[in-house]
Amino acid sequence: MSVQFTQQQQVVQINVDPHDEEDDTQRLQSPGARVPLDRMTSREERNERSRVKRIFDKYDRDRNGFLSKKELGRLIKENPGQCQDLPKGIAKEILKYADIDGDGQLDFEEFYKLSQEHKWIVRDFCVKYCRYVVPRRDGAIHDETASGYSVGSAYETVDGAYENQMKFFPPPLTMVIFSIIEVIFFIVDIVYLNDYKETDFKNVGTSVNGPMATMFIYNPRKREEAWRFVTYMFVHVGVMHILMNLIVQIFLGTALELVHCWWRVALVYLSGVLAGSMGTSIANPRIYLAGASGGVYALITAHIATIIMNWQEMEYAFLQLFVFLVFCGTDIGFSVYRHITDPFDRVGYMAHLCGGIAGLLVGIGVLRNLNVRPYEKKLWWLAITLYSALMISGICFHIFNPDYFMFEKTNPTPSESGFP
């Protein structure tokens, strides 16, 4: 049998020569072709058989004692290399070679024999293939095999394993969809109020008297309309307000969705929006609220959460954490300072702060953790418990303290939950 790697065409050819039926002694002498079983001690062989059996059982999904072509293909695809560019048909060729009895599937003995002749089938073939044949998307080269892990083990301490989890199908459209809805709301109000005729660009879209803003903005007088605690994220005050939110949320949300799946990102985003309005309502019950930055800050701190939970699997984890912490600390600190010193400031710093806290806690709770360590399980429980307690407390406060929210009628001056 010959295995040919062709870099230009990115294919693997496995050719079985009918004349390659030489005796076992000759085949054992092929460099790198097999690990001689007769050199193993009985204990070593038992351990090796046990290790391979665990792998075999893991991918024998129907528990019939055989690996089909589909199950063998899944084993290769889910190898720690996570190579998404393996050529089609490689599982069929491997099965054709290793299926000694010709029944179209591998029993354990056939699989074990194959694993000893070609260690890559249960350890590092995909990693080597991706390294030498398929160009990495980031252009870097990592020798994952140096860590000595095998199929069935997690990405234990491999820098870049987190980045290798990125998948572009299905495409990451969650934040794009949210952004399109926000733009539609903004345009409807502009057209309805004829704001597009405004000569001063800064004043376009600053009115909150349009139909969409009136119906969906967070209005402290209409707390009984519970949807406003979330739908205020679709309402923005001014062109710069919406542009800054859209840019940040699309970039940060897309980066998360490439690894963590759309529903996790959506949950983080919406939890930040809800926490932003809840916190603002309690801190200042007279504030109208508009904008999506409760969700935007949730996405920012969700990146911090995933860095913490995947520290050893992420490239440049310390640098990424430092950048996000500096950004959050600077912006929130500046927002608080401006709120104290400028009586006309309308930026909702409380929505930023509460959205950021929610993103951190929910991010730890729902985002993927490639290798769960004992202390991370405790951190997970702490984050879920704390977020649940805060949200339940906020909801109960609104329900059982109606007098706290009583105030005289004033003209609406929405706080921009977002970048000014």
What's the helix and strand layout?
Blueprint: E1 2-6, E2 11-15, H1 24-28, H2 42-59, H3 69-77, H4 90-98, H5 108-117, H6 125-132, H7 174-193, H8 211-216, H9 228-231, H10 239-260, H11 262-283, E3 288-290, H12 293-309, H13 317-341, H14 349-366, H15 374-400, E4 414-416
Parallel strand pairs: 3-4
Antiparallel strand pairs: 1-2
Helix pairs in contact: 2-5, 3-4, 7-10, 10-11, 10-12, 11-12, 11-14, 11-15, 12-13, 12-14, 13-14, 14-15
Walkthrough of the structure:
It is a single chain. Helix 10 packs across helix 11. The N terminus is likely disordered. The strands form two sheets. A two-stranded antiparallel sheet has the order 1-2. It has a two-stranded parallel ribbon with strand order 3-4. The N and C termini lie far apart (67 Å). The protein is mostly helical and 420 residues long. Helix content is 52%, strand content 4%. One of its GO terms (molecular function) is calcium ion binding. It is a multi-pass membrane protein. It is found in: Membrane. Belongs to the peptidase S54 family. Keywords: Calcium, Membrane, Transmembrane, Transmembrane helix.
How would you briefly describe this protein structure?
This protein has helices at residues 24-28, 42-59, 69-77, 90-98, 108-117, 125-132, 174-193, 211-216, 228-231, 239-260, 262-283, 293-309, 317-341, 349-366, 374-400, and strands at residues 2-6, 11-15, 288-290, 414-416.
Q: In terms of quaternary structure, what is this?
A: single chain
What is Rg? 29 Å
Unreliably modeled segments? 1-39, 80-85, 120-159
**Sheet with the most strands, sense and barrel status:** 2 strands, antiparallel
